[in-house]
């Protein structure tokens, strides 16, 4: 069985009442992968905006394997000390990682964040030497559209991310950079300028699905074109 672990911040954990891109990805793989698979991770909840805590289990589909390693307000630096044990204990084969916005917005600059990417990869491989990792760059958000210095940090980090993954890539534990959704629009694909709505969830899932299909032959291209 192939085990996928979604890793991310608020855009990955999602909140009560949302499907999440994790769910869209699971539905797509269920229809196209052609073999046994599941989602794994040490956490299962959604973020509850009423209590501002990750306490909700309000998933729309009871069949959805809701495990993940994601948290509201968490970034690369928060995941570095967690990822090794999570990969080891959950026997994750593929990590689907969407991180960076929180780091750049609150904790670290682009160069420091890229350093945390390196530490994350090292820890993940220490937990499972043949783990495969797909990483989504920081995608458009409302702050980058209004704050030029922040936008510059996002652009620099995305460049450093590509170089870091290329530098650390190796045959037994391949690293894959997903392409940002080309039509992603903060006015159409988010509900607040940052967090994805239904169309945004589909587009993020498509970025991961298409990258894995093109590079590794996993599943099929994502059919959503909204």
Question: Which CATH architecture?
Answer: 3-Layer(aba) Sandwich
Quick one: CATH superfamily? SGNH hydrolase
Question: Approximately how much beta-strand content do the residues carry?
Answer: 5-15%
Strand/helix succession: EHHEEEEHEHHEHHEH
- Kindly report the average pLDDT value: 96
Would you identify the regions where 5 or more consecutive residues have pLDDT less than 50? Answer: none
Number of helices: 8
Number of domains: 1
Please provide the count of β strands: 8
Distance between the termini: 31 Å
Proportion of helical residues:
40-55%
Largest sheet geometry: 6 strands, parallel
CATH topology assignment: Rossmann fold
What would CATH call the class?
A: Alpha Beta
Estimated radius of gyration: 16 Å
Question: Would you tell me the structural class of the helices and strands?
Answer: alpha/beta
Categorize the overall geometry.
globular
Explained architecture:
The chain has about 230 residues and is α/β, with parallel strands linked by helices. It has one domain: SGNH hydrolase (Rossmann fold). About 45% of the residues lie in helices and about 15% in strands. The strands form 2 sheets. Strands 1, 2, 5, 6, 7 and 8 form a 6-stranded parallel sheet that branches. The protein has a two-stranded antiparallel ribbon with strand order 3-4. The longest helix is centred in the C-terminal third of the chain and has 21 residues. The radius of gyration is 16 Å and the shape is globular. The two termini are about 30 Å apart.
């Amino acid at each position: 069985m192939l085990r996928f672990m979604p890793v991310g911040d608020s855009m990955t954990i999602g909140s009560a009442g949302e499907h999440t891109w994790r769910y869209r990805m699971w539905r797509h793989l269920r229809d196209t992968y052609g073999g046994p698979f599941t989602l794994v991770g040490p956490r299962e909840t959604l973020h509850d905006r009423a209590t501002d805590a990750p306490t909700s289990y309000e998933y729309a589909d009871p069949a959805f394997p809701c495990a993940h390693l994601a948290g509201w307000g968490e970034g690369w630096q928060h995941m570095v000390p967690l990822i090794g044990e999570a990969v080891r204990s959950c026997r994750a084969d593929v990590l689907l990682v969407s991180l960076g916005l929180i780091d750049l917005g609150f904790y670290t600059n682009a160069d420091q964040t890229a350093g945390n990417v390196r530490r994350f990869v090292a820890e993940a491989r220490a937990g499972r030497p043949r783990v495969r990792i797909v990483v989504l760059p920081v995608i458009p958000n409302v702050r980058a559209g209004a704050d030029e210095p922040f936008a510059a940090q996002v652009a620099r980090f995305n460049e450093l991310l590509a170089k870091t993954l290329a530098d650390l890539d190796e045959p037994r534990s391949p690293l894959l950079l997903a392409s940002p959704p080309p039509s992603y629009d903060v006015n159409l694909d988010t509900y607040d300028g940052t967090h994805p709505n239904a169309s945004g969830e589909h587009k993020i899932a498509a970025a991961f699905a298409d990258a894995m299909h093109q590079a590794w032959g996993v599943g099929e291209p994502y059919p959503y074109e909204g």
